[in-house]
Each structure stands twice: as structure tokens, then as C-alpha cells.
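Job type: complex structure
Entries:
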Amino acid sequence: MTPQQPAPAGDGPEERNPGLAQERTSLSWTRTAISFAALGGVVLKENVVTGLIILAIAPVVWRLGQVSEGSGPQPGFSPVGAFRLFLITVAIVAVALLCLFIAIFGKSVPGALR
Amino acid sequence: MSWSSRLAMLLPGTVERDSGGTEPDPRFTFANERTFLAWSRTALALVVAGLGIVQLLPPFPGVPAGRHLLGVPLIVLGGVLAIVAYTEWGRNQRALRRGEPLPRSLMPWILAATITVMAIISAVVLLISALR
């Protein structure tokens, strides 16, 4: 198969403005950061320290999402990009382990939703 | 493939080194990254749901371990899903670089199977506590 070139200029919005894909990706990073903040808010109710740690991840994730912004319209794939995604994976696994610990050993608030 | 080389494939930076090929259309790279991020959010949502079930729900009468039975698997699934999302991102990026068809994804199957099992467990727990 021939190397993939950017599609020839056409009439689609994507062809007229390739930056849209980058913008969607940037927004996706923002949503991911908001998800971390939401989880941090929930955990804050159970365990203040853990909640603050998770809340502190949110701005880092948001900042990671801005990395590709400065490198022009075609930053493409770089080891830096792979490393960002690796960091997110590590962060989620760590957060899941923390939450598992809280869920099993933490003092529950029975009937908080009653 | 040995386990050590499988683990080495998880490290960032290996995609470019071992797959060769050419840089794909950046739009494909962005789309692959968004797919990974969407699965990451799914994983985080599962962790929130699991923690919420354990910590916020009132205990099920008659099923003292009921909340943990429902919440702990969801949290574990969240962590597993994040790792699988990362490996599949790497597989997709390799395929894109080589111009090969994208490999089939395991994640919809994992998610659907787990949600089905969790729904069955929820129904059983609710029935037991309602009949009591």
C-alpha cells in the first residue's frame, strides 16, 4: 500500500480546514481532564487527601492536551505523543487502585444517597 | 511472543521504533488518539460508578456484601479498560503506519460482557434484598 498522504484538497469541511481534527482532539483532552476533576470531586467526599491528588491530575491532563498545539497544523505522531497517552493510562490505573483501596477499606457513608 | 517483549511493547516510544512504515495522515493519528481518550473517559466513569455504589448507596438489606459485589468489579474493569485502551492505541498506530487494516478491537466485547454480568448480579442482589 502506498504511503498515506493527506487527502487531496476537496470540498469537505475537513479538507478545507485540517485543523478541525486537531481541535476535536484538543476538546477531547479537555473532556478527559473534566472527567478526572469529576472523579476527584466524588473522592473528595470520601477521602480528602486522595480527592485532592486526583483533582490535581485534572489540570495536568488539560495541559498535556495542549502540547500538540504549538507544533503547527501537522504535529503528527511523536514519541512525546505516545508518552502523554502512557501517562494517562498510568494515572487511570493508579486512580483505580486508590479507589479500590477506598472502596474496600474506607469508611463508607451509609445512606448518603438516601 | 514472550511476556517480556509483550511488556516492552507497552512502553511509549516503541510504536515508532519497531513498526517502521511511514507517518500516517495526521487526521488518522488524531482520530486514534481521540478513540483512546474516549475509552479513558469510559474507564474513569466506571471507576466513579464503582466508588459511588460502594460509598454512597445505603446497604442492601440481607446482602451485606452487596455493594462491594457490585462496586469492586466496576473499579477493576475501569483499570483494565485503561490498559487495554493503551495497547489497542499502539496496535492501531502500528497498523496505520504500515498501511495495514486496523486490528479488531476487544474492548466492546469486554465492556458488553461485563455490563451484562453486572446487570445480572444487580438483579440478583436487588431480588434477594426485596424478598427478604
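Summary: The CA atoms of residues 33 and 58 of chain A lie 5 Å apart. Confidence is low (pLDDT under 50) at residues 70-77 of chain A.
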